[in-house]
Amino acid sequence: MIRIFVPIDTTACALGADAVAAEVALLANNRGMAVEIIRTGSRGAFWLEPMVEIEADGNRYAFGPVSPGDVAGLFGAGFPGICQHPLFLGKLTDIEWLARQDRLTFKRAGVTDPLSLDDYRQNGGYEGLNNALAMSPADIVAAVTESGLRGRGGAAFPTGIKWLTVLNTPADQKYVTANADEGDSGTFADRLLMEADPFQLLEGMTICAMAVGATEGFIYLRSEYPKALQVLKQAVATAEAANLLGNNIGGSGRDFHLQIRVGAGAYICGEETSMLESLEGKRGLVRFKPPLPAIEGLFGKPTVVNNVLTLAAVSTVLAKGAAYYQAYGSGRSRGTLSVQLAGNIRRGGLVEVPFGASLRGLVEDFGGGTASGRPLRAIQVGGPLGAYLPESQWDTPLDYEAFSAVGAMLGHGGIVVFDDSVDMLEQARFAMEFCAVESCGKCTPCRIGSVRGVELIDKIGNNENISGNLELLEELCETLDAGSLCAMGGLTPMPVRSAVKHFPQDFKRGLKNGPGGQINV
Amino acid sequence: MHSSSGDPAAIVASAVRKFADIPGGLLPLLHEIQAGLGFIPFDGVAAIASGMGLSRAEVHGVISFYHDFHDQPRGQKTIHVCRAEACQAMGSRKLEAHVKTRLGIDYGGTTKDGRFSLEPVYCLGNCACSPSIRIGDDVFARVDADRFDELLGGL
User: Fold this and answer.
1) Residue B147's closest chain A neighbor by CA?
2) Could you give the ipTM of this predicted complex?
3) CA distances (Å), A409 to each of A3, A51, A119, A481, B7, in order?
4) pLDDT digits (tens, 9 = 90+) for A316-337
5) What is the 3-state secondary structure (H, E, C) of A465-516?
6) Neighbour-count burial of A250, counting CB atoms closer than 10 A to its CB (0-12 exposed, 13-18 middle, 19+ buried)
7) Which residues of chain B have a CB within 8 Å of the CB of A261?
8) What's the gap between Cα A452 and its chain centre?
9) For residues A315 and A75, what is the distance between their CA atoms, to the nearest angstrom?
10) Is pTM beyond 0.95 here?
11) Minimal C-alpha gap between A435 and chain B (Å)
């Protein structure tokens, strides 16, 4: 039986992977070949998707990007063997874009069948949980603290400290929640993890439950990820059947029940307290802090709220030890960062590297510059609330503190590249518009200020009293920054101010493409 | 995708029975009703409220807070066009103008034949191959005006 691997994640399928798999099956059948088509997660080299792999001499070899129309030609050239064909990429380990990464969290992505528990276990899965089950809760928390792991959702809070707070807060019920409301534009790492290696998230959450004494958990998944939902549902059912979730996990005498809840299209529900409100079945209004969710979280009980990648990384920390994980990274940013190269980029996808690499290195060496071939002009890092960086800042190392020092943020690691056709006034306007659309409405500066921000930027675009209105815009940004409970209102000024500061010429010549029109609330 | 064939009152009652005792069950309940009917009927709000031990205002508040929930009938399929930054960097502003013209509706609208509703979406997690759209539960990558017309023609 010849084994052929075709990815099944959202991006590969959005590029036609299902049709490619069907064509491969059809043509193999026509030729009387016995083949097994295994749908893997993607390796995240999205510029090469759909990437089809074969096995030969104990190695995997790849072809890509393959369209359904290419399949007949591939068979003609000798597929599914190693063959001369323009789409032949060679041995997987020789593809530099992948080989140059340090894959800890994404080591199985694209390699295995996401829903095969055997694949997961044969590739190091559940070693972390096995170790954790033999440790005291305090020792598990200590390992996470020593690893230096910080929250990957964007806030970069030390994970071990959060867990310790939950562990040390007595309660009749505690919860573990995975924030899978990955709403930032330019990010897809959580999605890829859930679609390509879902058991890793389940394992991380179970380890967390053992560490803090929780028996109930929730994955809060955004509704924009229907494929991830299907994969997670099946993974949870498989883990339950294998006694890796539910009562008396692995005979340990400890219980952990996991539910999946689907969001309903509100960006703000990625903010942790808004997410908790939503899990409680309410409007996603942001809560005051304190009390911290670690002390009074879901249904008023101590709750861990962690990003998908944070929880996934815990499985590596417990499997390989804190020192192993801690050895990667720079400064106080330890471990690996899952960078997502997006937007106008030639070689986009997921790049997992230790913290400390330069932004320019990522965008130019891995990314290969713009997809359009035009010069790079601006790079937005950290999602819609992140700064637009001009060329003078592209040598900033990808490290939480280094980004903070230049008035930017790393956030969830999304990097959106723009070429020189971008109009930064339009981008600043969009930041305010997005805030107006997605604000939960609790804080006036965010709810109303964002609408005023759109109006001001439109005036500037129409050449009305530019310097006066820029001054007003800065005052408005101060109000949002200082007068909002959460990052939505607090950080919307970041893309706006960075656009004004670094690209002032775009605010002094009127709108290139006419007025922006209505806000789509 | 929704069936829109069932009896609204029965679908609401069944969803209420299923989720009434589940902590935080209102969102899954609303998703279930919407999956069955395509929208949350106004007439169902009172039944949802009494079943969940909430006021009608609270139920209405949740329905109106979330972009996904609708209180009016919808087209058979929803087309989501991504408006977020990664797609903007690849020309989504042009694409969205084309889609609106082609369908003859703005965001929030439904075509006269009832086949399509159009909604904005802020990221589909497909940002390395922008611009992206979603039709039903299928996501499509690198969509320009021609590709959109081709996809629409195939529906």
Assistant:
1) A15
2) 0.97
3) 43, 33, 36, 15, 51
4) 999 999 999 999 999 999 999 9
5) CHHHHHHHHHHHHHHHHHHCCCHHHHHCHHHHHHHHHHCHHHHCCCCCCCCC
6) middle
7) 24, 27-28
8) 31
9) 40
10) yes
11) 11
